[in-house]
Amino acid sequence: QQAEAFAKRFDPAISQDGVRMEVVANISSASDVEKILAQGAEGIGLFRSEFLYMAHTKEPTHAQQVAEYKSARERLGNTDFPLIVRTLDVGGDKPLPYLAMDDEENPFLGVRGARLSLMRPDLLKRQLKALLEAARSGPIRIMFPMISDIQEWRKIRAIYEEVAADYPDVQCEIGMMIEVPSAALMADVFAPELDFFSIGTNDLTQYTLAVDRGHAKLSRQADPIHPSILRLIDLTVKAAERNNIWVGVCGELAADPFAATLLMGLGVKELSMSSKAIPMVKAAIRQASKAESATLAQQALQAIDAEGVYQLKSKEA
Ligand code: PEP
Ligand code: MG
Q1: Where does it localize (predicted)?
Q2: Ligand 1, atom 1: closest residue by C-alpha
Q3: Looking at ligand 1, which atom is closest to the CA of residue 46?
Q4: Mean pLDDT value of segment 245-270
Q5: Which distant-in-sequence residues (6+ apart) come within 8 Å of 222 by Cβ?
Q6: pLDDT of 206-218, one tens digit each?
Q7: ipTM, two decimals
Q8: With a threshold of 0.95, does the pTM exceed it?
Q9: Separation of 253 CA from ligand 2 center, angstroms?
Q10: N or C: which end of the chain has fewer CB within 10 A?
């Protein structure tokens, strides 16, 4: 089964009833691109740019940043393959040695992601400048992490527009991660003001179920297939559909073949994952039908717990 999936990894993931799912990869460096292409990735759904910052002892220079993003774009080759770069997502739990940060009692609830960007707009502006410069050599979409409130988004967007004013020749799609429950619940407020959503199920699970995502003893409780998470995904997709924007999933849930079919059933258009999962996820999409997956997804939304969702697996056609 695995060998067969691997043999077909370069074929698109089209369901039995003809619905295409875009299957792309998460990367942490431009040098990952060859590896993910070899697994059948159709682009990059999440470039975690914090790794570029962590690889240096001080903030990477403009030239270093541009080179990295351009390199990812060029290595991808095919310009139909999307490149989505997430802006710096560091904070209390992922510190940067050269960035002074206060000690926090609850770093996951503290200054991280977009919150840090708003406290250090200079840092964000330099990154956006590098991204826009790199986007002159091919399309780049820009995504912002950890947004929890519309005013936060508007401030981020204003900063983006200020920087983008110097690049009238460049057009970037901009979107946000949905990884905080408030953002999913308010997705209808965000959707008219951006180009796409990408759901980060790792943090969304942590914040919804109040379980530390890395906790050794609570990993069973931190299951992103829990119906509470599926309901938040459903809300997000519905808000997106009403506003004609697309929704992807870039958290670990996307890498699970069964969950991938449920996500198709909920109306998710793109799945981004660590590349080794790609062949099996594509195979699962090909075996499923969108219509049947939609029925299954409706049942999953009514399940009372994660176990109830797993029980639907046996009902899968
Ligand atoms: C997530 O939170 O699901 C996500 C994709 O981002 P990260 O794992 O980098 O926090
Ligand atoms: Mg996250």
Answers
A1: Cytoplasm
A2: 200
A3: 5
A4: 98
A5: 205, 206, 209, 211, 212, 213, 215
A6: 999 999 999 999 9
A7: 0.99
A8: yes
A9: 12
A10: N
